[in-house]
Amino acid sequence: MSVTIELDLPEEIVRQARQMGLLDNRRIGELLAEEVRRRIAGQELKRVLHEIRSLPGEPLTMEEIGVEIKALRTERRAREVRR
To answer: N or C: which end of the chain has fewer CB within 10 A?
Structure first.
């Protein structure tokens, strides 16, 4: 698909963007694709945080979080050894 975009940018930005190769069709496409991925990830993070915050019960303490992390790391190491 093809789309035409016209930008009104300050001369200095245009000069720097050209020097960095950012005004190339392929590069503009990459920048837009990355921004789309970033925004989708942000929306997903908000959704997950909403779900977590709506769970019943009290939040874990920092000590409890540390214990959980340590247990997960131990489990991961054990799986890696079995490979």
So the answer is: N
